[in-house]
Every structure is written in structure tokens, then in C-alpha cells.
Specification:
The structure holds two protein chains of two kinds.
Chain A lengths: L1 H15 L23 E6 L12 E6 L2 E7 L5 E6 L3 E7 L10 E3 L1 E6 L5 E2 L3 E2 L10 H33 L6 H18 L4 H30 L3 H23 L4 E2 L8 E4 L2 E4 H23 L1 H11 L1 H6 L4 H27 L3 E2 L3 H16 L4 H17 L11 H13 L13
Parallel strand pairs in A: 1-8
Antiparallel strand pairs in A: 1-4, 2-3, 2-5, 5-7, 6-9, 10-13, 11-12
Helix pairs in contact in A: 2-6, 2-7, 2-9, 2-10, 2-11, 3-4, 3-5, 3-9, 3-10, 4-9, 6-7, 6-9, 7-9, 10-11, 10-12, 11-12
Chain B lengths: L3 H13 L1 H20 L6 H17 L5 H23 L4 H20 L4 H4 L10 H5 L7 E4 L2 E4 H25 L2 H11 L1 H6 L4 H27 L10 H13 L6 H24 L14 H19 L17
Antiparallel strand pairs in B: 1-2
Helix pairs in contact in B: 1-13, 2-8, 2-11, 2-12, 2-13, 3-4, 3-5, 3-11, 4-11, 8-11, 9-11, 12-13, 12-14
The chains are: A alpha+beta, B mainly alpha.
Chain lengths: 431, 331
């Protein structure tokens, strides 16, 4: 079971190792730009099931059964080799060079190597899951806990999305990039700045709040003043999303980069459930923050103002609420929570690594959760995200791991057929 | 230092190349959706994927003749429109946008999944579906020179067939938007409630428009797969839809020829910018030393994203559009 958890996380990395979407094929009509490279780099990092790097291991690349390149991993587990041309290669670990006692789950993998994109190869270590029929209930229980954890992470990230929709009517497709940028900023402060991850995350949340404010002041407030319609705003937000995602790719790179803290932890048993400390902390932090947000919405002046603006903007304005200030606050709150969600997502689902596409992947699940719960409602969003998280994890019982997000997205279409306003939404919003 | 001749050759070849054909067809479909009916389809690349894989799987795996494969690919576009349209077309515009972008990502994940390898070829993609298309090629010489451009025989065949499909789609669009059907969908774009008050079945018209534009997108996928003889899932990633949007908005949404001219111009500009950046970042003493040559592919996406946002704010009618016909108001 422990190994299954490990596989779930590792498969997150395997997904990320997919080549960045390559641009359409260049001109076939005439001279394509001359290729002047003498080889294509392929790289990866070897870590065993405990997360420790594996040095001095030999990796061989073969094409049609003949070895074409070879590399040896360095002290930090990194390895790099260069193959002569694009095409399909088989990468194999030389298991005789592994440290004794290392269990190999997948030591051979065949991949398409392409030019102009990052080529990363992942090998998997750990024990094979033992398929014991009697463990059904325990497996379901553990997946349920994983699902609750994942759902809470989606929920934390999605509150901003839902509140921004509630107060301004904007479906912000760039919200996923707030998650990514938050996690990337936390990574820079943590790795480059040498700050421990917890204070680094708090600093990154401040940056995230400022980023949210910059978003509102620089773009959306101006667009509303210009009288831009909903559809124009949607197109602007998706353009912004693509531009930001690929800016992150340029400055941060296409690799999965890991935090310096909490990369590998041992699993503790809590009755039938086994959790690492960071998974447990992710659950606790998420619950505490969500309760705090609920209290903010229910008890404070600004929280009441936020709900009033979401309910009826004109009425709120005429009863003396400064709507622009409330919306600015919503953006800052959303930015800070998206940052926290990004760090928790990286820690609990992506084996403590940060990737440039993580936000977009989370965005689609956020949409599924928010719509399932009811667009524009804070509590509905949370409920919907929990259900989506649980569905995603439970679906691994029947679906292959690389399709685990499918269930969460399929629920989106199903709920729109049967109850388009969502579980807790009101009918008035959807027409 | 910068070889402008090469920039121009690359650009001109892109004006007519398979990419321009592909995005012209995608944008023609989006023009029916967004330009005429006001539907926000953010998953047009998914329609291209089902078209291409519908054709590829039926021809490569089941040995169907090419014409049947093309019909199956187009039918897949209609089915996808029905599946996505039925739940969302009665709701606000953003629901369709969310569901279509999610569907295009689901389709990509499913086609590249290792569990589907024997069916879709996994990440390696499908091969062997284009033999009968290549066999029909009448241009048997290895290369032809047309207006100073050297074009390989198979490419000339693919380009000719591709532009024929584009021309037929343009003709169909032109006939349809001048018909009573076209006036109804434009009325829906301007004011859905007014169209409904006149007794029009708005849902049915939107559904027909979604299916028609989806078939154009599916044709785009089929043509590109045949022209490049390759079919891999990761090409069909969600940002590609917005290349088509950028082309559509550049040319002018809601005009018959807008998407075609937009796609040609867009690929011309994009490939010239691309080639310029590659030249400027390569070599001993690069003009732009702060950009590495690996980043050029990513810069293209950044430029397209910014371009899309800025056009939508400052010139939503593009080059040829009419401002009052552009959908901008909330609904």
C-alpha cells in the first residue's frame, strides 16, 4: 500500500515528464530552419523509494536494440546523455550498478525523444503493490483519505476563483497560473533564498496577494471601466493564462524542481490509514485555513461586504459599500490562497516538486469542483472540490493512473446535464 | 547577421503551408461558433483531435477506405458537438468554454494514455493511415518550383487538397450566412432572448452551429494528419485552440474570409518572428544573448497569449471585421 502511494506521486512526475507541447510542424513546403545540433539531450534524476539520490548508476539508451549512448548518475542522482537524433529510444537502468537493496519497479522505459523540447526520463523505484484481495476496504479507506487531502488542496486554490466569479462575474482562466506562480515564488525563496519552506510559503503568499492586486488594478478594473463584456474578458483571461504559463516555462524551465524541505518522509500508521507527516500537515493546514476563511466571510465586516457584493452588486454599492475595494480584497485573498494551494499541491500530489503546468492541470479540476458545488458560492465550491478530489483518487481503483483526472472532469459534464446550478447554487446565476 | 531572405522564404512558405490550412479550418469553425453565433468554444483542438483520430483509427486499425475514414472523422466531430452542447448550450457562455477546454484536455489524456496504446498508439501516435492518400498523388516528380518556391511533390498534393477543403468550407459558410439560417444565428449572437421571443428554437440553432463548426475543426485535423502523415496526441494540446482564436480575431470574426486571411497572415507573422528569434539567438555572438534558443518555442506561446488579450481589448474586430458585429457584451 505504501508503494501504491509512492506510485501515485511518482506518476505525477511521470506525467510532468511529457514533452512540452511542441509547436506545429515547421514548413514542409520549403527550407525548414537548418538543424545544427549534434545531439539531443535526455536527462533525469534517480531517486530511490525513500527519495534519496542514487549516484554512480549506469543508464543506457538503445535504439532498435543497439546501445547508442550511456551515462552515469552523479552524486545528486542527476544524469544526462545525448542521443544522435529524434526518434524512439529505450532507456534501461543497468541494475548491476545499483546500490544493493534497491527495488526497481520500472527500470526500462521506451520514449519518443524530440528536438526542441525537454526530454526527461523517469525510472520508478519501490516495491510492487501486492494485489491482495482482502485489502479492498483498507484500500478504499486510504484512497478516501488521499481524496479528502486532494479535495482540500483543490478547494483552497479554488476559493479565489469562486469568489472572483461571485463578485465580478469573471470566470478567470488565468487562476491556474496564480497557483503555478505562487508555488514557483515559494520555490525560489526556498531554494535560491535558503529560507525554510514554511516561512517561504508565507512570504510567497504575500507576493501572491500582491499579484492578485496587480491583476485587478492593472487589468480587470480597467476592463470593467471600459465596459468590456463578459466574453471579451474571458478571452483576455485565457490569453493572459497562456502568456503567463509560457513565461514561467521560460524563466523557471520545464523540469520538475523539488523543494529543499520535506522531499521525502517516512509513512506513519494511524490505524488502518498510513500518512506521511507532510500529508497530515497538508490536511490540517487546509482545514484551519478554510475555517478561517469561513469565519472571515461570516463574521467580519469585509467578509459580509464580500457576500453582499456577490449577492447584488448595485444594492451593495447603494448601501455604502465600496465595491472596488471589496473586489480588490477578494483578488488579494484569492491570490494568497492560490499560492498556498500551489505549495500544498506540490507537496502532497507532485512529490514536493514544482512544475510550470501544475496550475493548468489543477485549474480544470477547480472548475469541475466549483461548478459541481455551484459557481459563485464559497461553501459550494469547497464541497464540490472535496467530491472531485475523492472521485479522482477513488477512480484509480478502476482507471489506469495516467487517466486519474478523467473522473473529476467527467463529473463536470454530468452535473451540467442534471443540475446545472450545482449542488448549492441558485438557479438565477446560470441563464 | 540576420538573413532577411531566409526570413521571407520561411514566411511565404507558411502562408500556404499545412499549418496555415489547419488553422484556417479551425478558425473557420470558430468563426461559425464565435463570430456568427456567439458561442465560446475553447476546445476546438479537441474537435480536430476526434476528426483526425476518427479517420486514423478507422483507416489504420480497421482497414476502412480513406473516404469512409474521413466521413467517420467528420461524424466524430458532430458527436462531440452533441455531447458537449446538450448540457451547456442552455447556460451562460462560460459553461461551454469550461466544458470544451476540459473535454479537449480529456481527449488528449485518453489518446496518449498507455492503456490505449493498441488503439491510439499512445504517445507515439498512429501511422499507416495515409497510404491511400499518398497513392492518389498525381504529382510524381520529387519536387516542383512554383513562384520561386521549391515544393516536394507529396507536399504540393497535400497543400492543393487542403486548400480545396478550405475553399469548400468558405463557400458553405458564405452560402449559409446569407441564408435565413445565417440570419437567425446572427440574431442569437446579438440578442438571444429576442430571437427566442420571435419563436426561434435557439437551442437547436446553437446546436447546429456548434456541430457545423465542429465538423470544420474535425476536417482541419484530418487534413493536417494526411498532409504531415503523422498523428500524435501531444500536438493537440489546449493552447492550440487559441492560435486559431488569434488567427480568427486577427482576420476579423464574423466575416466569411476573415479566418482564412487571418490564419495565413498569422502564420506568416509567427514564423517570421520565430525564424528571426532563432537567428538572433543562435551562433557565436547572438543579437539577443539573454534568450536561449530553447526558449524560442515558448516565446511563441507568450506572444500569442498577449496578442489575443490585446486584440480583444483594443481591436476586437481585427483587420476586416465590423466593430458593431463583434460580440463584446456580457450575456
Amino acid at each position: 500500500m505504501i508503494a501504491l502511494l509512492g506510485t501515485v506521486m511518482l506518476s505525477g512526475t511521470a506525467l510532468a515528464a511529457a514533452p512540452a507541447p511542441t509547436a506545429p510542424a515547421p514548413a514542409t513546403a520549403s527550407a525548414a530552419p537548418a538543424q545544427e545540433q549534434d545531439g539531443i539531450d535526455v536527462s533525469g534524476t534517480l531517486r530511490n523509494q525513500a527519495g534519496d539520490p542514487l549516484p554512480a548508476v549506469t543508464i543506457v539508451a538503445e535504439r532498435d536494440g543497439t546501445p547508442v549512448a550511456e551515462a552515469t548518475s552523479q552524486a545528486d542522482g542527476r544524469w544526462q546523455l545525448s542521443v544522435p537524433a529524434a526518434g524512439s529510444y529505450t532507456f534501461r537502468l543497468d541494475e548491476s550498478t545499483l546500490p544493493p537493496g534497491t527495488e526497481v519497479l520500472q527500470g526500462e522505459t521506451t520514449r519518443e525523444v524530440s528536438d526542441g523540447s525537454l526530454n526527461t526520463v523517469v525510472f520508478r523505484f519501490g516495491e510492487e503493490v501486492e494485489g491482495s484481495g482482502g485489502a479492498g476496504f483498507v484500500t478504499v479507506l486510504r484512497l478516501l483519505v488521499d481524496g479528502i487531502r486532494f479535495g482540500l488542496v483543490i478547494g483552497i486554490s479554488a476559493i479565489g476563483l469562486s469568489l472572483i466569479f461571485g463578485t465580478t462575474g469573471l470566470t478567470n482562466f488565468a487562476h491556474g497560473e496564480m497557483v503555478t506562480i505562487g508555488a514557483v515564488v515559494a520555490w525560489y525563496i526556498n531554494v535560491a533564498g535558503g529560507v525554510q519552506l514554511i516561512p517561504a510559503t508565507i512570504m510567497a503568499m504575500v507576493v501572491g496577494a500582491l499579484l492578485g492586486a496587480a491583476n485587478e488594478l492593472g487589468i480587470w478594473r480597467r476592463l470593467r471601466r471600459r465596459g468590456a463584456g463578459l466574453i471579451a474578458q474571458l478571452v483576455v483571461s485565457i490569453g493572459l493564462s497562456i502568456a503567463l504559463r509560457y513565461l514561467v516555462l521560460i524563466f523557471f524551465g520545464g523540469r520538475s524542481e523539488s523543494f529543499t524541505d520535506y522531499t521525502a518522509q517516512t509513512v506513519r500508521d494511524y490505524g488502518p490509514i498510513a500518512l506521511t507527516d507532510k500529508d497530515l500537515s497538508a490536511i490540517v493546514i487546509a482545514i484551519v485555513v478554510l475555517v478561517a476563511v469561513a469565519l472571515l466571510l461570516q463574521k467580519t465586516r469585509i467578509g459580509k461586504a464580500m457576500r453582499a457584493v456577490a449577492d447584488n452588486r448595485d444594492l451593495a454599492a447603494s448601501s455604502g459599500i465600496n465595491v472596488d475595494r471589496v473586489i480588490l480584497f477578494v483578488w488579494m485573498l484569492g491570490g494568497a490562497l492560490a499560492t498556498l494551494g500551489g505549495v500544498l499541491f506540490a507537496l502532497s500530489e507532485l512529490s514536493s516538486t514544482v512544475q510550470y503546468e501544475m496550475g493548468f492541470r489543477l485549474l480544470l479540476l477547480m472548475f469541475a469542483g466549483v461548478i459541481l458545488g455551484g459557481l459563485g458560492t464559497a461553501y459550494g465550491a469547497l464541497l464540490g472540490c472535496l467530491i472531485v478530489g475523492i472521485l479522482v483518487q477513488l477512480s484509480t481503483l478502476v482507471l489506469p493512473l495516467d487517466l486519474k483526472y478523467l473522473g473529476g472532469l467527467a463529473v463536470l459534464i454530468v452535473i451540467l446535464v442534471f443540475r446545472p446550478q450545482g449542488l448549492l447554487g441558485s438557479r438565477a446565476r446560470i441563464g | 547577421m540576420i538573413d532577411f531572405g531566409q526570413l521571407l522564404t520561411v514566411g511565404i512558405s507558411q502562408l500556404i503551408g499545412p499549418s496555415a490550412i489547419f488553422f484556417a479550418l479551425l478558425a473557420l469553425g470558430l468563426n461559425i461558433h464565435f463570430g456568427y453565433t456567439g458561442l465560446l468554444n475553447f476546445g476546438q483542438i479537441g474537435f480536430a483531435l476526434v476528426g483526425a483520430y476518427g479517420m486514423g483509427i478507422s483507416v489504420a486499425n480497421y482497414g476502412a477506405p480513406l473516404w469512409l475514414g474521413v466521413l467517420i472523422g467528420m461524424a466524430c466531430g458532430v458527436v462531440m458537438a452533441l455531447v458537449l452542447g446538450i448540457p451547456t448550450l442552455r447556460l451562460r457562455a462560460d459553461y461551454l468554454a469550461i466544458v470544451t477546454i476540459a473535454a479537449s484536455e480529456i481527449l488528449r489524456l485518453v489518446t496518449r494514455s498507455t492503456s490505449q496504446t493498441e488503439f491510439t498508439g499512445g504517445t507515439q501516435g498512429l501511422t499507416g493511415f495515409g497510404d491511400s492518400f499518398a497513392a492518389l498523388n498525381p504529382f510524381t516528380q520529387p519536387s516542383y518550383t512554383i513562384l520561386g518556391l521549391e515544393i516536394r511533390g507529396p507536399d504540393l498534393w497535400a497543400i492543393l487538397m487542403g486548400w480545396t477543403v478550405v475553399a469548400l468550407c468558405v463557400l458553405l459558410t458564405w452560402l449559409l450566412v446569407r441564408s435565413p439560417w445565417g440570419r437567425v444565428i446572427k440574431a442569437i449572437r446579438e440578442d438571444e432572448d429576442a430571437a427566442r421571443a420571435l419563436g426561434k428554437n435557439v437551442f437547436a440553432y446553437k446546436m447546429q452551429a456548434l456541430a457545423l463548426g465542429g465538423v470544420f475543426g474535425a476536417l482541419g485535423g484530418i487534413v493536417l494528419a494526411l498532409a504531415t502523415q503523422s498523428l500524435t496526441p501531444d500536438f493537440y494540446s489546449p493552447p492550440q485552440t487559441f492560435f486559431a482564436y488569434a488567427a480568427l480575431i486577427l482576420g476579423g470574426a464574423g466575416r466569411v474570409l476573415g479566418p482564412v486571411i487571418g490564419a495565413m497572415l498569422f502564420w506568416f507573422l509567427l514564423s517570421v518572428a520565430d525564424a528571426f528569434l532563432r537567428q538572433a539567438t543562435a551562433g557565436e555572438n547572438p543579437l539577443l544573448p539573454f534568450i536561449s534558443s530553447q526558449d524560442v518555442g515558448a516565446i511563441r506561446f507568450v506572444l500569442v497569449g498577449l496578442f489575443l488579450g490585446l486584440m480583444m481589448v483594443f481591436r476586437p474586430q481585427g483587420i476586416f471585421g465590423r466593430r458593431r458585429e463583434v460580440l463584446g457584451d456580457g450575456r
